[in-house]
Amino acid sequence: MGNQEERLVQRVTEIYECVSKLPTLSPSKEVNELFTELVNICIPVIAIDVSKLSSEVQAMRSELIMLCGEAEGLLESHHSDLLASYDNPLDHLRLFPYYSNYLKLSLLEYTLLARHVSSRPGRVAFVGSGPLPLTSIVLAKRHMPVAEFHNYDLDPTANDRASRLVRSDPDMAARMAFHTADVLSVTDELRGFDVVFLAALVGVGHDEKVRVIEHLARHMAPGAVLVARSAHSARAFLYPVVEPAELTGFEVLTVHHPVDEVINSVIVARKPKDDHAAGAAAVTRPCKCCEMVQGFHHFRHGSVMGDAAPEELPS
After folding, report:
1. Model's pTM, two decimal places?
2. Residue 269 Cα to chain centre, angstroms
3. I need a labelling partner for 165 at 20 to 30 A (CA). Which of 172, 234, 268, 279 fits?
4. Transmembrane segments in this chain: where (predicted)?
């Protein structure tokens, strides 16, 4: 491991030690500063394979991802409550400090999806939607204006918070549903969706993530598309990694590693229309059909997607 990688691991470990000693991860000046620094040091170009780090560092990384998830949930709950205090919460989404990131991530996911979907999705599931379901909201308002969105989360209070945000918008209230459920208990319903989005923090541990993907492969409709969030290089200190080869039962269509402040990588995969192929190993299309964007630069350098309009889904 080179000096740059060693310095990164050392600083990440120092931040982890500070974060793990905090009495609470609720939003505060100290919490915000620590996680902002953590994100900032994980975004630049540092080619590091977290799977090859020592067992001690890997254990620290696993715990850090859990802490990041807890802090993210508390931050979203705080801002969901703030937004719910307005008569029209959806008019004030920019109050969330990372709203612009969600705009870019949603545009990226929609654009990648548009390349591989032959008809306009009518029913969409988002697994792990949380108290502030910004991806579903942005996709529904900006990119899929007629689709139904079914949001799944384990936490009933998260769903209560999320549903408050759309109640005052008749169109969104009609097209947004919130279900309290473990995705592993959702079976027949999954066959009713054209597209399933899998949030990065659903299945934080590797084995759990694989179980979720295998469950989706068994129960999604043949021909349906999975959009799974992953992480790459140093960003894997923030979120779990999904390797394309782990998408058993799917044909991997696209793998995209962003180079801007959008932290999550995006994998788009399709369940084969032949149901018998669903138990097969992951199939990756030839490289010319995959978008492998390697390398990172500092988030202030701007988005690789720029402000280009997303590709239109076929009618």
Report:
1. 0.87
2. 15
3. 268
4. none
